[in-house]
């Protein structure tokens, strides 16, 4: 009986531990799309999958583009650009899991050309079908990191669109949210471990 309890406890704990890394922050940095050209090529497709997340454009006329490192508009890090006028970009987790959105880097598409600051509004769809929004003013030059409020969690998807000017986006900091049964599994494992230790001490 003692051995059975110990085996069960170890099994529960191992399975709970296996899903724990999903709660860690993930930074989607688009470095797999890096190139050394001067132009922003248009064959980056309509969706990009990285670290278990999908970034897709809902437009059908143009997809995403990426400035090459030889471009004067390159920010020093590979960024994605939605090439459709007022194009809607959507972020979601592969498989439909919930996640939290922590921060994102934004920059003008043509930094340094005297464009005015533009506003980018993010809309998050939560698991209970409610919505949260947050807007950021992006300066005409340089990269800015914007942090989201604590309400940007339990999200099934987040969308944002180009405003008056296009923007580059990069380093999307997200964290998968464990399903409730994951917590239950973890607690069950801890409980069985405690019970097994207590029985061994008797």
From TrEMBL:
InterPro entries, per database record: Ice-binding_C
Q: Which keywords does this Swiss-Prot/TrEMBL entry list?
A: Signal
Q: Does the keyword Signal apply?
A: yes
Which residues belong to the signal peptide in this entry? Answer: 1-18
Q: Which domain of life is it from?
A: Bacteria
Q: Which Pfam families match?
A: PEP-CTERM
Q: Does the keyword Membrane apply?
A: no
Report domain Ice-binding protein C-terminal positions: 176-200
Q: What is this protein called?
A: Ice-binding protein C-terminal domain-containing protein
Originating organism: Rhodocyclus tenuis (Rhodospirillum tenue)
């Amino acid at each position: 009986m003692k051995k059975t309890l110990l085996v069960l406890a170890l099994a529960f704990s191992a399975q709970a531990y296996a899903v724990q890394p999903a709660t860690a922050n993930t930074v989607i940095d688009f470095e797999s799309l890096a190139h050394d050209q001067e132009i922003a090529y248009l064959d980056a497709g309509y969706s990009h999958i990285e670290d278990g997340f999908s970034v897709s454009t809902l437009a059908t006329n143009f997809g995403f583009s990426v400035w090459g490192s030889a471009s004067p508009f390159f920010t020093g890090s590979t960024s994605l650009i939605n090439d459709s006028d007022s194009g809607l970009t959507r972020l979601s987790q592969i498989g439909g899991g919930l996640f939290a959105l922590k921060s994102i880097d934004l920059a003008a598409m043509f930094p340094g050309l005297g464009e005015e600051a533009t506003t980018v509004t993010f809309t998050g769809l939560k698991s209970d079908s409610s919505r949260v929004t947050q807007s950021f003013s992006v300066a005409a030059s340089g990269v800015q990191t914007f942090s989201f409020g604590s309400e940007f969690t339990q999200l099934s998807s987040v969308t944002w669109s180009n405003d008056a000017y296009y923007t580059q986006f990069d380093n999307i900091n997200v964290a998968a949210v464990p399903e409730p049964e994951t917590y239950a599994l973890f607690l069950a494992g801890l409980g069985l471990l405690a019970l097994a230790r207590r029985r061994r001490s008797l």
